[in-house]
Every structure is written in structure tokens, then in C-alpha cells.
Amino acid sequence: MNTNTYKVVTRHASGTLERVLRLVRHRGFEVNYCFAQGSEATNHVEKNMEIILQLSSDRSADNLYHQLHKLVDVIEVRHYNAASIRSSLSHE
Amino acid sequence: MRGADYLVKTLKDHKVETVFGYPGGAIMPVYDALYESGLRHILCRHEQGAVFAADGYARSSGQLGVCIATSGPGATNLITGIANAQLDSVPLLAITGQVASNFIGTDAFQEIDTYGLSLSVVKHSYLVTNIEDLPRMLNEAISLAQSGRPGPVLIDIAKDVQMAEMPATTLAYCEKSSPHQDDQQVLVPPSEVISKAASLLASSQKPLVYAGGGVGIAQASELLKTLVDTFKLPTVTTLKGIGSIEGSHPYNLGMLGMHGTKSANLAVQECDLLLVVGARLDDRATGDLKQFAPYAKVIHIDCDQAEVSKLRLADVSLVGEMKEILSAIIETVSGSFVHQTAHQWRHSCLTNKEQLGFRYDAPFSTIYAPLLLQKLSQRFQQQPAIVACDVGQHQMWVAQHMQFDSCQHHLSSGGLGTMGYGLPAALGAKLANPELTVINVSGDGSIMMNIQELATLKRYNIPVKILLLDNQRLGMVRQWQQLFFENRYSETDLSDNPDFTELAHAFGIQSKSIHLAAQVDDALDDFLSSEQSFLLHVAIDPDENVWPLVPPWQKQCRLSR
């Protein structure tokens, strides 16, 4: 079982978190950790949501990366290792 | 202008001419806007019929298919058809009414969480609870359904939004802004990746093209043929890839997979290079992946990055616009290799095709369905016809024994395998292609799943032909019971079927029944010459099975029969 961590930035549309978690479950990944936070919209920037996911699975992490990218509301997907996530959270 | 009027106007602005649907409480404002709008609405007799009709309209024309239903049961009845479009990448817009926004979440009458239900079966979905969001969401939905890899998009519109006046400021803003453009850019792989693919192709001793439904969707059939002809490449197709290269093309070895031709499956097992074009290596095509194409390197061309290396690692992945990629490969590869290195391979493939082809010399007085379908196919050598299948043995016989020159002429529920698809899909296809003969080839199990659409044929005088192959069984399930479940025929006997000719007559549709081989030619004459809908009921032997068969999860050279 491999563990992978993703940062997913999405448009903050209704149901987006549900959509991301549904995909993760259906593609065979177990959620160990999930953190989601919406940003406020400004004059120039659309309201977004940042989702941090730590997932376990025997399935291909690359395939999930591409599946997440396909979601219409997803703006960005990044792979992170666990240490860098802890570090980035401690700075927030 | 009310939200409902804006919806109808926008559909017309996007050149939508025909929509399929069924009215109900929460969608009534839209039906009011449709009244005398000039947009042709086809009232199907079940929402599932409407969504399959929209699917058939879309697949056979390459245009957007649109279906409309009310909240609650209307929406749930659409779900199977939306899933069908998702798995086969069909551009479909599903519009559902929702209870008024202040009732959402209160378990109101005919309220169901349509948006939530849709999540696993759509490319994308919207819930509109604010009139000001309607223009953006609707235009995005229409664009998304058709862009990139097409798919179904659902827009669920609260009833109060349908009835609300569109604010003048919103309308003015919408008219000023250009129609939504999908922000996905046309991707073309870098030239070094194209060169790598070209080099693999040029050095291959046993190259094989594996063409899928993506070829037709990308309108890349002509370029695929150029590639195949230029480099003399043996080619196999998936179920949805049928028609991407002419059925009669000398290098077309036919469909691969569980019920594929022997020559196609043997070629897959022996090739040293598989050029996968617009296909996703579905399990019905590959069998046991570990044993699939064991000697082959893989070049995979697709517009969807998520399909490449999903099931079989690609040595070269070419993600992007298929026509650009095929053109680049043709330009880059030297033509000389085909004469020197691949000649023996080609000869071996074509010899297998000739020697291992289907035989039609069944020595019985009863009707042999494969021969009947071959004869039907021969009637359309000059003027093509569209065939919409249902699902089961007859579907595989159509794929094996009929020939098609366009993906848009062979409509088959490939991914979801949905019984009941064929009749409404044929209805939609005929409306999109009034100049072509449209035939629904069905079975006695499948036809009963959407039999009510005979009433739609009659209401609008849509001259769809129905060829009903009746073995009084759920034939494909029975075949598996015979082969893999020790002849334990659990719930597959349909010998108490209704009299299908009487049933057709009750709907006001011409019908005839045959059961002898000697009746076939005359019956086909009547069937095809009728200017109205016609149901030809054909009694066939319940013991006739679909061959060849690669047992599930086994390698492609383990062929039975």
C-alpha cells in the first residue's frame, strides 16, 4: 500500500469537495487525511478552495493525478511528500 | 425574459434543433417556454427513452444531444442514459427541473438530490439556484459537453429560477461577453515525442493499429486510413472503433476482444508494436491484461491523458489533438520500412483473415442470425444505413457480421452495455439523419426494456426499422450459464414472450414474423421497402451462441471455436 499526498486547488463551486472525494474513493484510494479551506474572492481572483489529501492505495498515484486534473473545477494538482506538507502547514 | 425563455433561446442560439423529453411539475416553465418556440421537442414515453434518443441523435450526427426531464423520478430515470453517454463519450446536455430553491433540502414532493446523483456519471454538472448564474452555467454546460473528450453535462434548474425574470444587467452582460470557450488548449505533443513514435513504427517488424471510438469522435477516420494505407498496417478495431476504417478495407482484421475475430486477436498476441488510437484498452477488448499483446511496445494516442497508461504502460504517449498527431506521424515516418521489414507480418495477418474468417454455410432450415445480418449488410453496400443495436448476442453478431464505413453508422452501447438502448437511439438517429435508412437490431430481452418508444415512432411517423432476433432467451447470459455455470439456466427463459407482431400492431406499426431460412430474402425486401416503421420478428434457435469467444480474463489466443 503506497501513501501519496496531493494538493488540489479548485474553483470554490458548490459540491467540488464532494466531487473530489467521490473520485478518490471510486478510483480505489483511502483517505488518511483531508484538509479543505476556501479562499475569499477578491476583485481579481475567483473564490478558490485548497484541498490537501493524504491517500493510501495500491493503485497508480499518477493515474489519480490525471483523473483529478480532469475534473472541470480543478485548477491545479500537485504531489507533495509528507514532510513538506507538515512544514507548509506549520507556517500557516 | 424568464429563465425558461432564456434556456430555450440559448439552445436555439447554439443551433440545437431537436430536443427529447418528458414534462412534469418542476420543469413546467421550460415546457411553457418550448410551446410555440420553434424548437422541435420529441415527447418520448419514458425519460430513459428520451436520453437514449438524444444519445442516438448525438452519436449519429456529431452534434449535441439534448434531453429534458422533471425533478425526482424524471431525473432518476435519466441517470442510466447519462451514464451510458459518459462511458461512451457522447456529447449530451441533460436538463432537469428541480423544486424551487427554498424547498431544496426539505424532502419536498418529487425532490431528489439530482446534482448529487449525477456526480459519478457526468463529465460535469450544475445546480442553478440563482437566475444570475443561469447564463454562465448554461453556456459552460453546452460547451463542456462538446469540447475535448465529449461527455454528458447535467444542468439542474430550480423551478423559481425557470420562472424568474432575467435581470436586465445580467442579460446585457451576457450579450456583451463572447460565448464560453473551453480553456483547454489544443494539445500537440512535442516533435521529439512524435519522432520517438515514428522511430518505433519504422523499426517495428510486426506493427498493428488498434483503433477505438476516439477516432470517430475526433473525426480522424480519413487520416487513420491514410496512415494505414501509406504504411500498409494491419488494423484491429474495438466495438466503438467499428467504422473508423471501412469494414471492407483489406487491412482491417475486424474487431478484437472477447467476441473479436480470430485474425484480430491472433494479430494482437503476436504484434511487436501496438499503435493504440483513441481507445482505452477496455477489459472486453484486452482479456487478461498480463497476457495481452505480450511482445508489443505501445504507442498510445488519445486526447485524454488519464486514459494513457491507465491499464497498460505506454512506451510512447501522444496526448492531444488526434488529427494533428496522425498527420505528424505520417509526415515523420519514412515509408520505406513497410516494403522491407513488415511484409511477412502483413502477409501472415491477411492469410489468417482469409483462412479464419466467419463461415455462413449453416446447414439448417431455421434462420441463422449471422447469415441474416450479413445479408442485411450486403443490402447497404451502395447506400449506407445506420444500425443501432441493443445489448446481448445480437449486438455481437452485428459487430461481427455487418460492415460499416463510419463510426456514426454503428450505434452500440459499448461501455455501459445498456439493454434498451437501441430502439430510442435509432429513433434519435433517424431524426438526425432523415435521408438514411435506420435500423434497430434488437433481441427479445432488450426490446422489452424500452418497448414504449414504439408509441413515439408512431406519434411522429419516424420510419425506423426494427429487426428483432427472438431466441426466447436472455441469450448472452444463457450462453455464459451454459459455458461457465454448468447449464444452470437461472432466470433466462423468456419463452412466455408476448406475440411481438401483435404488439407492434397494437402500436400501429407494421410487422411480420419469419422462422425459416427460405423466408429471409423476401422478408428483407418487405422490411426495407416499407416507407413506414416496420418490425420484422425473426425466430431463431435458442441454442445458437456467439463465437468465437475468449473466455473472460484469458489471453486472446485462447479462442473457443
UniProtKB/TrEMBL annotation, chain A:
| Highest taxon above the source species | Bacteria
Check the record and name the InterPro entries matching this protein. Answer: ACT-like_dom_sf
Known Gene3D superfamilies for this protein? 3.30.70.260
Q: What's this protein's name?
A: Acetolactate synthase 2 small subunit
- Tell me which species this is from: Kangiella spongicola
The organism that produces this protein has a lineage beginning with: Bacteria, Pseudomonadati, Pseudomonadota, Gammaproteobacteria, Kangiellales
UniProtKB/TrEMBL annotation, chain B:
Q: Which UniProt keywords apply?
A: Amino-acid biosynthesis, Branched-chain amino acid biosynthesis, FAD, Flavoprotein, Magnesium, Metal-binding, Thiamine pyrophosphate, Transferase
Write out the pathway annotation from the protein's UniProt entry: Amino-acid biosynthesis; L-isoleucine biosynthesis; L-isoleucine from 2-oxobutanoate: step 1/4; Amino-acid biosynthesis; L-valine biosynthesis; L-valine from pyruvate: step 1/4
Q: Which residues form the Thiamine pyrophosphate enzyme TPP-binding domain?
A: 390-538
Which processes are annotated in GO (biological process)?
Answer: isoleucine biosynthetic process; L-valine biosynthetic process
PROSITE patterns assigned to the protein according to its UniProt record, in alphabetical order:
TPP_ENZYMES
Any one GO CC term of the record: acetolactate synthase complex
Q: How is the cofactor bound?
A: Binds 1 Mg(2+) ion per subunit. Binds 1 thiamine pyrophosphate per subunit.
Q: Which GO terms describe its molecular function?
A: acetolactate synthase activity; flavin adenine dinucleotide binding; magnesium ion binding; thiamine pyrophosphate binding
Domain named Thiamine pyrophosphate enzyme central is located at 194-329
The EC designation for this entry is: 2.2.1.6
* EC supergroup of this enzyme: transferase
The cofactor named in the record is: Mg(2+); thiamine diphosphate
Xref: InterPro entries: Acetolactate_synth_lsu (IPR012846), AHAS_TPP (IPR039368), DHS-like_NAD/FAD-binding_dom (IPR029035), THDP-binding (IPR029061), Thiamin_PyroP_enz_cen_dom (IPR012000), Thiamin_PyroP_enz_TPP-bd_dom (IPR012001), TPP-bd_CS (IPR000399), TPP_enz (IPR045229)
Report the domain of life of the source organism: Bacteria
Catalysed reactions listed for this entry: 2 pyruvate + H(+) = (2S)-2-acetolactate + CO2
Tell me the PANTHER family matching this sequence: ACETOLACTATE SYNTHASE, THIAMINE PYROPHOSPHATE ENZYMES
Q: What name goes with this protein?
A: Acetolactate synthase
Q: Which organism is it from?
A: Kangiella spongicola
